[in-house]
Amino acid sequence: MLKNYFIIAVRHLRRHKLYAAINIFCLAIGIAFSMLIGVYIIQQKSINGTLRNASNQYFIKSKWKVENMGLEITTVAPLAKTLKEKYPGLVANFYRFNPVTNVVSAGDMHFKESIAICDTTLISMYGFKLLYGDPQNAFRNNSSTVITEEMAIKLFGTTNVINKTISISNTTSGKQDFTVSAVLKTMPFNTVNNSIDPNGYNVFVPFEGNLYFQGGSGDDKWDNINMPGLVEFKPGISSKDVLKATEQILTSNLPGNLKGLLQAEFVPITEYYLRDNNNAVQKMMLVLSIIAAFILLMAIINFVNINIGTSSYRLKEIGLRKVFGSARKQLVFQHLVESLVITFLAALFSVFLYEIVRPQFGQVLNTKLDRFWDFDLFKIGSLILLTILISFISGIYPAFVLSSTTVIRSIKGKIVNATGGLWLRKGLLVVQFSLAIFIFIAALNVSKQVAYFFKKDLGYDKEQLLVITAFPKQWDSVGVQKMQTIKNGLKELAVVKSVSLSFEVPDRTPPATIDLIPVGASKQIVVPFISVDEDYATTFGLQKTDGSFFANYEGTATQNEIVLNETAAKNLNASAGSTIKMPDGFGFTVKGIVRDFNYSSFQQAIGPVAFIHVNNMTQYRYLTVKLQHTDIGNAVEQIKAKWKVLSPSSPFEYTFMDDRFQALYSSELQLKKATNMATALNFLIVLMGIFGVVAFTLARRNKEIAVRKVLGADARDILLLFIKDYAWLILVANIIAWPLAYIVTNNWLQNYSYRIGQSIYSYITVCLLVFILAFMLISIQCFKVAVSNPVKSLRTE
Amino acid sequence: MIDLKGIYKWVNTGNNRTFLLKDVNLHVTEGEFISIMGPSGSGKSTLLNVIGMLDEFNEGEYNFLHESVHKLKEKQRTSLYKQYIGFVFQAYHLIDELTVYENIETPLIYQNVKTSERKAMVADILDRFNIVGKKDLFPTQLSGGQQQLVGIARALIAKPKLLLADEPTGNLNSKQGEEIMSLFKELNNEGVAIIQVTHSEKNASYGSRVINLLDGMIVN
Fold first, then answer.
1. Is the dihedral of CA A627, A631, A636, A641 positive or negative?
2. Could you tell me which chain B residue has the CA closest to the CA of A11?
3. Rounded to an integer, what distance in angstroms lies between the CA atom of residue A138 and that of residue A127?
4. Angstrom distance (rounded) from CA A111 to CA A97
5. 3-state DSSP assignment of residue A44
6. How far apart are CA B33 and CA B43, in angstroms?
């Protein structure tokens, strides 16, 4: 019997190729999109899954009582270590690292690299695979280093580099040599190595005996609040137990200015990645799942609509089967088999689609999606399950409707509950249109907000800014002096307008803060600060509203001067010339005020920011060059040539400020692409659905149209007849979709301190576009029937 | 085998009640060959459908082989007619997507007959009706007479006790019609009871009894 069902299903498909093609294609789009999203979600969820004892691994996050006091992802340096030492019953292991960027050399090879100065527990705690070296004792001594295989190849051209020597430039004027004691196999993306810098670190050196910073690594200082800390709990220990211990440690060890202001939070490493950045990944997964569900739903609606619509030619068969003794159950089953055949074909086709769009889609999501051929059993199983589920959902309703018609009527080819079915079909169409319009409006608003990011006056000029990141960081006055020389050298070039040395460029809220007491007040406020030189304002195009942006000191230390942005000036009640004090009595003279600028993403409102001269605060990371004209390629070449002369031992590595700016909004750009894609797919499915429905309505109403024409209707009247049907469906859909779109978009926009206002025009545009598209499609299809000779169709009856 | 007592069937249109069948009383014994005649709209097909349990009636009693049909549930009715009744239609009503062979086989599938047995039974009947060569063709590839032959073969495959035919020759030319009627006669002689609806006196003459219907009532 099953074989019989399959045979008849395939024959039906072949006879009604158009409808079969529409159904299969739409379902294939739905399934392919679900596959892409599904694979993405599975991949994202499995991040960190390969870490040893992943379920016991935790990341220590910080909750600060005072805003801007410290970062969320770092904690007090000795906390993780102290937990393990004082509570060995709770904590099995700990790992901390201090991420720095500097030049790593081997012989004549110099590269700017991300380096982790870290605890030597890295390998033993997380079980990262080694190509060479002893996993139990990866760091043999304090001058050992562990590097990744990529790094080994980059420096030495081979992976077996045990006992070779590399040297790392540090901030104290010199270089420190390390001997390679282990080579790491390429690490999968994970939260231990990629949490702060998504590109991860390639060189690991121990805290002990490290000369990178003056005065040690700072890993034992309770006032160092900038150290990421990770711990592994003993089996069966909950974060509640450890929290209590942590509170005790913090209470007894924190210095006075931090006491009571810091609260630790233990985030399971398995969840860390998904919850990081204000749940960014989880939100993206949710949005994508919803979009996939929408697209699937639309494909299923098409299937149901077309199946019920074209059912008249099935009814005779159904009636006859009943006459010959088929039970209703058997008929329902037969239809489910049919829908399974169609869905299965769609699934096959979707694999093909999946492979075609996989690379592009992976790019949008910033990941590499698995090839279909590499799917594991779980993924294949899920796909099969999804296929069966879809075939069931899309087949069950038509099956019941069709099999419920009474025998006599079905033999005559009439559906009993014609009006009921019609209402349902119209309802489904309204749902489809509403979804399409909703997604369209949302996509339009996302695009507008993204465009706004790039259009809004930032308060600084991000164009033609070349940010050089690789140079020796000798964080003392001699180092600053050396940089001054390089600066002057670059300035000699005609293509260079100005150059500035700074610790930050405007791509994040500066994590370093200073406590200042507002003029005329007694309680201090926390103000983030940036150490910069006097050319910062000119280079970035900041506008002075009062005073000056430091003076040109030519390297001699300044006298306790500070520059504020407008908000800081307002909060501190200061103007150029006023004196503001730190709680310890140290006083700054306000040298000038600059207009507020977006130093961070638009999600955050502009807060107070202070500038301290790099001569006073001798820390710097960026050398930013403002180029003179737009021939960037030529300018870069000239600067590169000059750089080799000025700083022969560092590679010339740079980024452009506008690229860094764009990187701030990568998730928004992703969202924009995803919603655009969803809009396109939705419309494709909806239009195909309309095409199918109109095609069979035309076939069924052939005689009616002919009669109308004989009675004097012209082609226009006939077109109107069909368009009228859809016009009010689209209208109702708009009425449903508009408020939904408004609420959801508004909700999303609330994430941004700087955002667009929603305008009615986007809504009207979408509405009109849907009308025009639908009507064009209907007109094209109807036109042939509307102008054909009515006698012909009447004769065939 | 069939006993209809005071069968009424009506439809309500607005305030009016239109009777399709009015006080129909009919007794059919096994092996009879009855022809139902009457003008268009007199209720011939309705009566046939009621007898075939495809249509329901509003009032009256219907006993089929000592079963009270009016008291049965749909499922039981289905199994009853599945077992004992074969249908032949004016418009043949073959399933277009199935071949001749598969069309004939369908009733057996619904009666859960085993594959090997089905094969044998279908082969027998194909042979008997001389359409073995056509078994892999689709209905649209056959002439009207051939299609009706397949329709009859399909009705007989499950060896019914009663054959119901609604104008079986209505769409056929006279020669094909005669062939079908002599086939019916032959079947009747083998013991199958037949009730046919017909317009033609000539066709009616093949039967043993004629029932005349007018406005839903039997007039004799």
1. negative
2. B97
3. 11
4. 21
5. helix
6. 19
Tell me how far apart the alpha carbons of residues B200 and A522 are, in angstroms, rounded to a whole number.
Answer: 116
Distance, C-alpha A94 to centroid of its chain = 30
Residue A420 has pLDDT above 60, yes or no: no
Residues A320, B82: C-beta atoms closer than 8 Å:
no
**CB interface of B with A, residues 57-86, below 8 Å:** 75, 78-79, 81-82
Q: What is the dihedral of CA B154, B157, B161, B166, to 10 degrees?
A: 10
pLDDT the model gives residue B173:
85
* Tokens encoding A97: 């690292």
Decide: helix, strand or coil at residue A772.
helix
Backbone dihedral angles phi then psi of residue A20, each to the nearest 5 degrees: -60, -45
A223 Cβ neighbours under 8 A, 6+ residues apart:
A76, A255, A257, A258
Summarised one tens digit per residue, pLDDT across range A635-675 is 899 998 888 888 877 778 888 998 889 888 888 888 898 88
How far is the C-alpha of A168 from the C-alpha of A673, rounded, in Å?
41
Q: What is the pLDDT of residue A270?
A: 83
CB B160 within 8 A of CB B124: no
**CA dist B43 → A40, A541, B127 (Å):** 66, 96, 37
Residue A712 CB burial class (10 angstroms; 0-12, 13-18, ≥19): exposed
Which residues of chain A are at the B interface, by a Cβ-Cβ cutoff of 8 Å? 1, 4, 7-8, 11-12, 15, 316-317, 319-327, 330, 407-408, 411
Q: Tokens standing for B45?
A: 């097909």
Chain B residue numbers with beta carbons less than 8 Å from the beta carbon of A322 are 78
A16 to chain B: nearest residue by CA? Answer: B97
The partner residue sitting opposite B106, judged by closest CB among A12, A15, A321, is A321
A322: Cβ–Cβ under 8 A, 6 or more apart, which residues? A331, A407, A410, B78
Q: For the whole model, what pTM was predicted? A: 0.77
Q: How many CB atoms lie within 10 A of CB B127?
A: 10
The domains of chain A are located at 1-51+278-416, 70-260, 428-446+665-797, 473-648
A-chain residue closest to B87, CA distance:
A323
CA angle A457, A461, A464 (to 5 degrees): 140
Tokens representing B211? 């029932």
Give every CB contact of residue A476 below 8 A, 6+ residues apart in sequence: A171, A172, A173, A214, A618
Q: Do the chains contact at A330 and B75, CB–CB below 8 Å?
A: no
Interface of B with A in 123-182 (CB under 8 A): 154
Nearest C-alpha of chain B: how many angstroms from A794? Answer: 21
pLDDT in tens, A731-759: 999 999 999 999 999 999 998 889 998 88
Residue B211 distance to chain A (closest CA, Å):
23
Looking at beta carbons, which residues of chain B come within 8 Å of A335?
none
Contact B95 A15 (CB under 8 A): no
> What DSSP string describes B19-84?
EEEEEEEEEE-TT-EEEEE-STTSSHHHHHHHHTTSS--SEEEEEETTEEGGGS-HHHHHHHHHHH
**Chain B nearest C-alpha distance from A11 (Å):** 6
Instruction: Tell me if chain A has a CB within 8 Å of the CB of B49.
Output: yes
